[in-house]
Specification:
Layout: E1 8-14, E2 16-17, E3 29-30, H1 37-54, H2 56-59, E4 64-71, H3 79-92, E5 100-105, H4 114-121, E6 125-131, H5 135-140, H6 147-160, E7 165-171, H7 178-190, E8 195-200, H8 208-211, H9 219-235, E9 239-242, E10 245-247, H10 254-260, E11 264-268, E12 273-278, E13 283-289, H11 293-302, E14 307-311, H12 317-325, E15 332-333, H13 334-341, H14 349-357, E16 367-368, H15 372-376, H16 378-383
Parallel strand pairs: 1-4, 1-11, 2-3, 4-5, 5-6, 6-7, 7-8
Antiparallel strand pairs: 8-10, 9-10, 12-13, 13-14, 15-16
Helix pairs in contact: 1-3, 1-11, 3-4, 7-9
Length: 390
């Protein structure tokens, strides 16, 4: 059974955005008129109350390691709403002063002067959904901001006192060249973020791009972009520590690291997911909240459960652990597998042997770490740990 309770984080989902992007498969909904902000904040806190009641034994006395506001576009909520949520969270569960608190923001939804108020509300890290600094590419992606607006918003945030922020960038965009991808990275570096998320545009099911695919670079071209941009980021002092994450020293995203290390997290809000381990009895539970904002609010009004809970059985834990941990360049200590899953390392000796024989894992028995080939063929590596993988 899981022998030590892992760090505990909180994910807060704000489901509304100004306009649904054609590549987006997140649980986001274009707002139609005024958002029910007050009702939604009430629902979020009721959602948290229910989770804390239902999982009191597992969560008792555990402080929050981090808080992450994702979406949708959380910056559509004014700072006073974010402050009300954080104050409500702190009244219910220990929230240390040094806990990382991240707010995702779209540069096109933030007005002058509001960054100071988000900082005052308790947010200490921002994540800017820039995606590109090429206005043509932004239009193709359906973004509502321009490159200059993105640069202005980031500078305003720094002037307001934010010294920890991420820039999201995508590559292999419609008709993007290698030079264009590198220019995007150069313009991001010039803004001196502490963290860069750099990931390939993929065509996800049930999106407009999947139904009407745009002209994308081929896989070889995309790989060239990844390698060239990775090298430029490294040259500028951003070390890659996960498949799509690059950070300056000491600025890795604590919240996402907790996911990748198979930590625990509460998930509140429409469509939010959570994972909670109970070290006292060895159980691991996944929670899933109802996706539609209207349904979520209706359940809150009726005092009903916000979603479902399902156990993660021992047979499924190795795959779920590896799905996360092997995204990290450094992997994790082998001991952490047993601590977090309750499964003996000996029970996965066969898939471990297969992965090492294929050169996808390093030979260090004390670490579960992907090799360079393992990182390149990550999906194949992870599939080895499926129950019926081999």
């Amino acid at each position: 059974m899981p022998s030590i309770a892992p760090p505990l984080s909180l994910y807060v989902h704000i489901p509304w955005c100004v306009r649904k992007c054609p590549y987006c498969d997140f649980n986001s909904h274009a707002k139609d008129g005024a958002m029910p902000v007050d009702d939604y904040v009430d629902a979020l806190l009721a959602d948290l109350d229910r989770d804390l009641r239902e999982q009191a034994q597992a969560i008792a006395d555990r402080p929050l390691h981090s808080v992450f506001f994702g979406g949708g576009t959380p910056s559509l909520f004014l700072p006073d709403a974010i402050a009300r949520i954080l104050d409500g969270v702190a009244a219910r569960i220990p929230l240390p002063r040094d806990a990382e608190v991240t707010l995702e923001t779209n540069p096109g939804t933030v007005e002058h002067g509001r960054f100071e108020d988000y900082l005052g509300a308790g947010v200490n890290r921002l994540s800017f959904g820039v995606q590109s600094f090429d206005d043509d590419k932004l239009r193709r992606l359906g973004r509502i901001h321009s490159a200059s607006e993105a640069e202005r918003a980031i500078r305003l945030a720094r002037d307001a006192g934010f010294d920890n922020f991420n820039i999201d960038l995508m590559y292999a965009l419609p008709q993007q060249s290698l030079d264009g991808a590198i220019v995007d990275v150069e313009r991001a570096i010039a803004l001196q973020p502490t963290h860069v998320s750099h990931y390939q545009l993929t065509l996800e099911p049930n999106t407009l791009f999947a139904a009407k695919p745009p002209p994308l670079p081929d896989e070889d071209s995309a790989w060239d972009m990844q390698e060239a941009c990775q090298a430029r980021l490294a040259e500028a002092g951003y070390a890659q520590y996960e498949v799509s994450a690059y950070a300056r020293d000491g600025r890795r995203c604590a919240h996402n690291l907790n996911y990748w290390r198979f930590g625990d997290y509460l998930g509140i809000g429409a469509g939010a997911h959570g994972k909670i381990s109970d070290a006292s009895n060895g159980t691991i539970l996944r929670t899933t909240k109802v996706k539609l904002p209207r349904s979520y609010l209706e359940r809150a009004a009726r005092g009903e459960s916000f979603g479902t809970t399902a156990p993660v059985g021992p047979a499924d834990r190795p795959f779920e652990f590896m799905l996360n941990a092997l995204r990290l360049n450094d992997g994790v200590d082998a001991d952490r597998f047993e601590q977090r899953t309750g499964v003996a390392l000996a029970d996965i000796a066969t898939p471990l042997s297969i992965a090492r024989r294929r050169g996808w894992l390093t030979d260090d028995p004390a670490r579960l770490q992907p090799s360079a080939d393992g990182r390149r063929f990550l999906n194949d590596l992870i599939q080895v740990f499926l129950k019926d993988g081999e």
